[in-house]
Specification:
The structure holds two protein chains of two kinds.
Chain A lengths: L1 H15 L2 H23 L6 H32 L3 H5 L5 H33 L6 H27 L2 H15 L2 H11 L2 H13 L9 H6 L5 H28 L4
Chain B lengths: L2 H4 L3 E12 L4 E13 L4 E5 L6 H8 L7 E6 L7 H4 L2 E4 L11 H11 L4 H14 L15 H13 L5 E5 L7 H16 L3 E6 L2 H7 L2 E6 L2 E7 H5 L3 E9 L10 E5 L2 E7 H13 L3 E9 L2 H15 L1
The chains are: A mainly alpha, B alpha/beta.
């Protein structure tokens, strides 16, 4: 386990020294400031516009960061051949992959805390005091970003960085459309379309289960079953993705 | 695990590796038929020209590449097993390291990977910095290191876990004469401490200086393998006789050069006896008889030529 944590630490260290990350964070800060301006132009919202735009922005930029870091965490290792000396040590490939993922998860956690902290601060300035629902929405976002990071790692194990990024972006988009697709299939009444949309629904992750933005925005009561389901679903799906990635990674030759 | 096999650092038998490449995924054999064993405690040179398959072989020894056929055994086990790799240290040909880390962070990381803890870990890291002459550069980021410094920190990471088998891929590549000597000295020191050193090179002079055993790889096939003394010793190619010969002396055979008033006669070993008798009978005085043995370079070139003629 020591070597897994060592790899996680190095992955985290590499990620936080990446300048691309800071340019993405800069955009989040700009978005928060713009949402503040919009909020002040809207009567009776009291920070709700900041919270609404801010949570959506944090989710979008967080997903982009998760894709970027997930792909680069593996692709850079392969392209720059830095993993050779690591895999030549008494480190199993599954352990290496797990270390990469934990480092990625830690980086995403820190970034999310930074972005979420800024968001809650700006929202509070405009009148929306931090709520438990907002914190929960951010925590569930972390789970979603972890899953996206695992998708990126899976693709990066067997293909190049551009395709990995594109595939992960595709999964992110489809993941937010699958409940709608399933409903659409049911509406069509056609057995083939029903089977197809159901197949897509079960194959791709349903990222909407991690979405607690509405609860945060309107301070709605949160159901424990909803949180529990998201937690179990996120952990199980991410675990399955990592297991598949490990299986492919074990079979790979490093020329 | 066979007990005897367990004491052999490296054993390869009938190993081949083909890579699929191009649009039609044609197979290209990088390594065709590699069989050799590396005895414990030896300093083993793996020789071959660029593209002969040396790095592919080394990657199979580390479990980075799976062989297409044949058997690769390291300390009697599969190199894909992390437990086996606990006894192995590796330096790649190019210094592919996390260059955003400082030298200390880098060695700390590799000490973690080798499972080192506590005081022994601190001592080992300090020892490595001393050993590779990098004391004082501990807090410098690797992206500010010169090629020679990178090679030395690479050696330090390979040796941090005190491995019994050290595999070095072209360890002297791109180094200045002082750097090459330091690496050679480290290899000799490792052997003196009972470690097995396996290194690849295409610089034959490096191998001839330090190796006690070699394998010669030509176009993916091992052509000669064994102790350097056995591979080269029996092959006395020519004999050079230096003598003071009477005026007008005509040697019956061989190449004759007159230099500094002396006769230098170079001829085949089998002809040297009659030639010496002829010289003495003519009243000459023999100053020296030097057998010219086959060098590693001539052996290597002969193997290469033989393969090219056959192919």
């Amino acid at each position: 386990m020591n070597h897994v944590l060592a790899i996680a630490r190095v992955t985290y260290r590499e990620a936080v020294r990446n300048r691309v990350l800071y340019s993405l964070l800069f955009f989040v800060v700009v978005l928060l400031l713009v949402s503040g301006v919009l909020d002040s132009m809207t009567t009776g919202q009291n920070g709700r516009v900041v919270l609404d735009l801010g949570l959506a922005g944090v989710q979008l930029f967080g997903a982009l960061i998760a894709m970027f870091l997930g792909v680069s965490a593996m692709s850079r290792e392969v392209a720059r051949k830095t993993l050779y000396v690591v895999l030549a040590k008494p480190v199993g490939r599954t352990g290496f992959l797990l270390g990469k993922f934990l480092g990625l998860l830690a980086t995403l956690g820190v970034l999310l805390a930074a972005m979420g902290g800024c968001l809650l601060l700006v929202a509070a300035v405009f009148g929306a005091a931090p709520s438990g629902q907002a914190l929960l929405a951010l925590a569930m976002m972390w789970l979603e970003l972890g899953l996206i990071g695992a998708v990126a790692l899976l693709f990066a194990v067997f293909t190049g960085p551009f395709l990995s990024g594109m595939f992960t972006l595709g999964v992110f988009c489809i993941g937010h459309l699958t409940p709608g697709l399933k409903a659409l299939g049911r509406e069509s009444g056609d057995a083939f379309i029903v089977a197809l949309t159901q197949g897509v629904y079960y194959l791709f992750p349903n990222l909407d289960v991690f979405d607690f933005k509405t609860e945060a925005l309107y301070r709605l009561p949160v159901s424990a079953s909803g949180v529990g389901l998201a937690l179990v679903y996120g952990v199980a799906y991410t675990g399955a993705l990592l297991a598949l990635a490990a299986l492919l990674f074990k079979r790979r030759d490093f020329r | 695990m066979n007990t005897m096999e367990g004491t052999v650092p490296i054993h390869m038998e009938g190993v081949g590796k083909a890579f699929r490449q191009g649009f039609w995924m044609h197979a290209r054999e990088a390594v065709r038929d590699v069989s050799f064993s590396v005895p414990e405690g030896s300093l083993f040179g793996y020789l071959g020209h660029n593209g002969a398959g040396k790095t592919t072989t080394i990657k199979m020894l580390l479990g980075l590449i799976a062989p297409s056929r044949g058997q690769v055994r390291v300390w009697g086990g599969s190199p894909a097993d992390p437990v086996v790799r606990r006894r192995v240290g590796y330096l790649p040909e190019q210094p592919y390291f996390y260059d955003y880390l400082t030298a200390r962070e880098f060695l700390d990381f590799h000490a973690d990977l080798c499972g080192l803890t506590g005081d022994s870990r601190r001592r080992r890291i300090a020892l490595m910095f001393d050993w590779v002459d990098l004391a004082g550069a501990e807090d410098v980021a690797l992206n500010r290191f010169s090629k020679g410094m990178l090679q030395r920190i690479g050696l330090a990471q390979a040796l941090i876990g005190d491995p019994e088998l050290v595999i070095l891929d072209e360890p002297m590549s791109g180094l200045d004469p002082a750097g090459r000597k330091r690496v050679r000295d480290i290899m000799v020191e490792l052997k003196a401490r009972g470690r097995t050193v396996f290194f690849s090179t295409h610089v034959l002079a490096d191998a001839e200086t330090v190796c006690d055993q070699v394998a010669i790889l030509v176009q993916g096939r091992v052509r000669s393998v064994g102790p350097l003394t056995e591979l080269l010793k029996p092959k006395v190619t020519e004999v050079e006789i230096v003598a003071q010969a009477p005026d007008g002396y005509q040697a019956p055979q061989g190449r004759v050069v007159h230099r500094d008033g002396r006769l230098h006669l170079t001829l085949a070993e089998a002809d040297s006896g009659p030639a010496l008798r002829h010289l003495l009978d003519a009243g000459g005085r023999v100053l020296s008889v030097t057998p010219h043995r086959e060098t590693l370079e001539t052996l290597f070139m002969n193997e290469l030529t033989a393969v090219e003629r056959a192919g």
